User: What shape does this take?
Amino acid sequence: MMSMFQIFNVSGSAVSAQSQRLNVVASNLANVDTVAGPDGQAYKARQVTFQTEMMGQLGQAGAAASAGVKVSTISEDQTPGRKVHDPKHPQADAEGYVTYSNVNAVEEMVNMISASRSYQNNVEVMNTAKTLLMKTLQMGQ
Amino acid sequence: MLNNLTNSLDFQGQALALRSERQRLIAGNIANADTPGYVARDMDFAQALREATGSQQGAAVPKTTQAGHIGIESGLTGARAESNLLYATASQTNLDRNTVDMDRERANFADNSVHYEATLRFINANVRTMLEAIKGQ
Assistant: This one.
């Protein structure tokens, strides 16, 4: 029954990866109208990349390792930011253009829904595993 | 004599171990639903169970016929042999080469948990039957 316990590791890693993704989406959405970040540049949208993380020893009784998830990198979107002509703006450049962040709000909303659905899926997996384990504990009674 | 009582319990025990193994596999698939390049895995349950219980019925264990052969120990034919794992193909092509189909995985997960519970109930009923028999009232 030890493999049942590993479900918590697997789904737990997925939940934490998805919540990190949700966190990145939140900071992207918060910065959708940012003109300049702390370095004077406009905010660049961030994106997480997931990677499979093998858990547990491979060789143990010929068992395949369980496949968890981790966030391997957080990359910045390098597309140029949105430019708006507004000469009166304090951050306007010599030609009167203000550079906003390159966050695409629609994309981020879609990303958020996807992350939240995946999160829910994994929580449900953990709940089912817990129920089954509780029933296993009562075996033979 | 006691053997006869516990034989079917052994079978159910193997089935339960396999079910929990499959549950873990499907949980891994669901966890990796958004991982680029991940290939979903599953097991042929009937085949795996046949291999896991085959040694008990005196079948399906390859013999070593020559000096250089490596014998398969009965432990290795058990529930967790890696060779039973299959790769799932994508039902719809995906830009990031991920082959996890969430509908399929969730259906498999629900199916597997129901079967797990059923096996548990079989074991419980078996134990109860044996206890009743032992009491002899």
Observations:
- Chain A has one domain: 2-33+44-78+103-137.
